[in-house]
Amino acid sequence: MRAHRFHPPNCPHTGYGKTDDDNPYRCKCTAHPHNPVCGDTVSGDVTRMALSANATDGRNPLSPVSFVAVTSCAPDSLLANLPVGAVGVAGLARSGLSFPAQVAGTQKVEKRESPGYFISANKGIAVNQAQVPLPDHSSLTIGFSSTIRYTELRCDVYRPLIGAFDQAMGQSARVTPPPAAAPFELCYDSSKLSPTRLGYFVPQVDLMLDGGKNWTVFGGNSMAQVDRHTACFAFVEMKEGKTGYGGRAAPPVVIGGFQMEDNLVVFDEEKQRLGFSGLLTGRGFSCSNFNFTMPA
What we know:
It is built from four helices and 22 strands.
């Protein structure tokens, strides 16, 4: 019913809260809500909804901030593959109707729009501080995605990377990937890997960024435990012809959620800069240390 209360532009009949049967002349705006986990898309009514979110100082939630956002109704079936208790999906891309853009608009913050978040690795990739030989020595464009689980690399980047990592690891702990390891190719006997605060002690992977900084991936973000005895190198080959980011071709590297876990990542919209903490467990912290209790 809430969808009927939004008055679309140039639409003389909105239903005024009545059902379609009561007002057959009602017109409405149609949107296409999308579930990025399973890839399903449906048609639904555009509506406005009052939402509330807590401001934060980075450690604790502060006072709630209320605002009205443009949303879309969706059937329960579209939410089927989301975590238990999820009631919807909030888009975080840099588009005009994304959740951050709408919040910024209601709070009078300047909005800057582009099809995605990108950084550039002008020196490529290194494993154990040795540069990985890539066929194209130009700067790598790297995207970020919270909807893919593991970092994806285009074939011409992926193959040299796993070759360099496997060579740096040696063969003593290498095992044949079990069925549970798919889609990973490099797997190891985890009983032969030494645990540290940064995860398993394995060769580090550096994305060598413009400006001289590195996005360093230690064992905690490079090795996925697939069963009790096996850990695998958690980078995967990108499907050929993959698109994204508003229909454009995907960049050569897309950092996935697993590689961003327990990293504090900050996108400075105003200065067009990226800030990141590195793996927090190395400092004795994790993202779960955030206190969701409202202060008295």
